[in-house]
């Protein structure tokens, strides 16, 4: 753990590029078993590959992953994307979404503090929340934290529903200004392709600058 922390801090010294911290918060509960979890994993791998191939984004994007299925846990910490491997995703258990979001917010806040200590500029964090059901724990505190950060323009959230069993009302509590979108079928690849292009656009802008989302591109993967 200590060695990983040292590497992350060295990355900030060796690469002073302004960062885009992104946390993927992924539902790996039992209902995701089979094709959904396989397609999700393939989509995340494609996302990493697309970022690695982008001359700017590969130095700007930093990705962490939190999963929730039975338990909520960090499965990948922030680092240089060229040092990272996408961990296996295994579907099991219930859906502790509130706990997972709190872990994600803690990770994003800690990484911002790392940037500030190192004098590295950064874009406000992104959180991508993907689920196929409804939370089985209390989401009140996590939703309140998210709402506060969004109101201060300190967080962008992308809530994505997988399938038709999602509690859209619960999911919308994590995004008071941007309604959740429902994935078309299992179009994870199209979603992560859109996300990688969005990261590329942001990483080529100036921190603090408003960057419009590619609304047309959303139609390729979401039910509008």
Structural class: alpha/beta
Relative strand content? 15-25%
Rg of Cα set: 16 Å
From the spread of the alpha carbons, the general shape counts as: globular
The first-to-last residue Cα distance is 43 Å
Query: Helicity, in percent?
Result: 40-55%
- What is the average of the pLDDT values? 93
Oligomeric state of the chains in view: single chain
Q: What strand order characterises the main sheet?
A: 3-2-1-4-5-6-7
Unreliable segments of 5+ consecutive residues: none
Number of separate helices: 8
**Which sheet architecture does the biggest sheet show?**
7 strands, mixed
N-to-C SSE series? HEHHEEHEHEHEHHE
Short description:
By secondary structure, the protein is an alpha/beta fold. The protein has eight helices and seven strands.
What does this structure look like?
There is one protein chain. The model has no long low-confidence stretch (mean pLDDT 93). The chain is of the alpha/beta class and 224 residues long. The protein is globular. Strand 5 (156-161), helix 6 (168-172) and strand 6 (181-183) form a beta-alpha-beta unit. The chain has eight helices and seven strands. The termini are far apart. Strands 3-2-1-4-5-6-7 form a seven-stranded mixed beta sheet. Helix 2 runs parallel beside helix 7 (188-203) and helix 4 (97-118) packs parallel to helix 5 (140-151). The relative contact order is 0.17. The protein has helices at 2-14, 35-53, 57-60, 97-118, 140-151, 168-172, 188-203, 215-218, and strands at 20-27, 61-69, 71-76, 126-131, 156-161, 181-183, 222-223.
């Amino acid at each position: 753990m200590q060695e990983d922390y040292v590497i992350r801090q060295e990355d900030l010294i060796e690469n002073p590029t302004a960062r885009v911290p992104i946390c993927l918060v992924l539902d790996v509960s039992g209902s995701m078993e089979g094709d959904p979890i396989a397609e999700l994993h393939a989509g995340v791998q494609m996302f990493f590959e697309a970022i690695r191939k982008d001359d700017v984004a590969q130095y700007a994007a930093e990705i962490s992953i939190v999963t929730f299925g039975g338990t909520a846990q960090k499965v990948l910490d922030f680092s240089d994307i060229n040092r990272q491997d996408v961990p296996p995703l295994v579907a099991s258990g219930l859906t502790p979404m509130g706990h997972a979001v709190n872990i994600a917010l803690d990770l994003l806040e800690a990484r911002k503090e790392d940037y500030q200590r190192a004098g590295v500029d950064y874009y406000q964090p992104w959180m991508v929340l993907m689920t196929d059901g409804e939370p089985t724990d209390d989401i009140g505190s996590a939703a309140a934290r998210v709402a506060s950060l969004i109101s201060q323009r300190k967080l962008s959230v992308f809530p994505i529903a997988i399938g038709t069993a999602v509690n859209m009302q619960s999911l919308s509590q994590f995004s008071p200004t941007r309604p959740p979108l429902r994935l078309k079928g299992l179009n994870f690849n199209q979603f992560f392709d859109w996300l990688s292009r969005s990261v590329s656009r942001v990483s080529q802008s100036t921190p603090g600058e408003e960057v419009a989302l590619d609304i047309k591109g959303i139609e390729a993967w979401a039910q509008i």
